[in-house]
User: Fold this.
Amino acid sequence: MTIDGLKINYYENGPADDNSGAEKLLFLHGWGVGYDTYSVLLTFLSKKYHVFAPDMPGFSRSDEPPAPLDVDGFTDFAIKFAAAAGIERAHLVVHSHGCRVALKMLARRPGGITNEDGELILKAPEITKLVIIDGAGMPPRRGLRYHVQVRTFKIAKKFFNIRPFNKMFRKAWERLNSSAGSEDYRLASPVMKKTLVRVVNEDLTPCLDKINIPTLLLWGEEDSHTPLSDGKLMESRIPGAGLVVIKHGGHYSFLDDWSTARGAIDYFLKQ
Assistant:
């Protein structure tokens, strides 16, 4: 599929639309991976639902955007993908970064993409139920050590950009630069590095109160990327949301205890 000039790789599987009565389901993946990381989950969901799962721009086998995106940019993409795939009504299941897109899309008023005058030009799909797995979007808790490291890096960057220091200490700067930031940041291309900075620094807490559909939160007890406290915050702010905690689970909690995750998701969606 081509969206905004970008070739988008996507997964589609499940019961056929004609006379099967199968509901549609849209899945949005986390940062740094594509839909194939979730093969266990998607295969399971495809038994009952007509599932669509795109590799978002810049990830896996989809084209990289020509310029950095923010959360709104990914949200516009998700809405355009749904329209191109013929998804008018669906359940929405998201993991990590995909949660940012879900929160922004569901909080938009009016629901969809608008022009400069605020007029709706492309309607978002109607989302009937939301499943968030180890979701991102809450402001990160950063201690003194983090701020000292950031300040040190910025000072060093200014120093190494001064001639002749940039030539004299080039290797030292390359070592420092390669060790700066998270693993996601270090592995990203220049465009996706800037994209990551934009999406991580946007606080989506104000979106939570605007979510007005049944919501299941599935969280790893020991998730170090999006801590359980984020899940508890979402539970307290999203009206009627329910939280299921995966004991000893990490950031991919559904893989750490597939039986519990599968049961919770299946029970929630079929109610």
Remarks:
- Residues 144-188 form one domain.
- DSSP finds eleven helices and eleven strands in the chain.
- The longest strand covers residues 126-133.
